[in-house]
Amino acid sequence: MKHLKKIENMALFMRRKILDISYLSSQAAHLGGGLSIVEIMATLYSHILNFDKNNPYWELRDRFILSKGHGVLGYYSALLASGIISEEKFSTYLKNESDLIAHPIMNLNLGIESSNGSLGQGLGMGIGIAYSAKKNESSKYKTYVLLGDGECNEGSIWEAIMLAPQLKLDNLIAIVDFNKLQSDMTPGREIINFGNLASKFENFGWSVYDVDGHNIIQLVETLEAKHSVGKPKMIVANTIKGKGISFMENNNEWHHNILTKRKYELALTELEG
What we know:
Elements: H1 2-25, H2 31-35, H3 38-48, E1 63-66, H4 72-81, H5 87-90, H6 122-135, E2 143-148, H7 155-166, E3 172-178, H8 197-203, E4 207-212, H9 216-224, E5 233-238, H10 261-272
Parallel strand pairs: 1-2, 2-3, 3-5, 4-5
Helix pairs in contact: 1-3, 1-4, 1-10, 3-4, 3-9, 6-7
């Protein structure tokens, strides 16, 4: 299946670009949570989202919100791979006066729909956008929101979880990057133990799918699955923080860290080997 190979190649390209720009920035970057969402972002931007890279203001474009704003390395690299931003723009990451900083700033010219960084806000934004589309019969676009699992500790997320089914937002798709680690070096279950996260969402009235967040076939099938009428879709994507680089995987030192020359070269050798 040609589209699966295309997504796989895009994911590899994105990982390489994440390493390149993190090293070139000479600054600490959110590598772990950027790498954990690569397959999700590659699947969305290569195969699922309806957009026109030459017309970022197209009214019928699908909307994407990165609620876990610190995952920008996975976001910016997807925008680059999709041709939405240029290599020149991508290379400005974390530089003075750059549009591409450590958390996304709304800029439709760059394909960035919303400003995010303060966790817990993106799903509420997505509900507003999806509800607006529902009220306007000519607006057939869908809204996608990518959440962090640690972010799901926020009360505002659960307010939104309750509201979306009430509004029958079957044009809303939320995805949780369930990598099970949080920024303070602690497994998420030791802060708030969600138990069976998928069943909780289901009990609130969502159509829920529990998948391997690095399995492209599962992601495609789930994202393409027909919506239950009147129900928003929730995808619990089980992921590995730092995925693709062995010394970063499940190692929370790489939640936010500087990629030295030695570590950069080691990561490249592993990625390209």
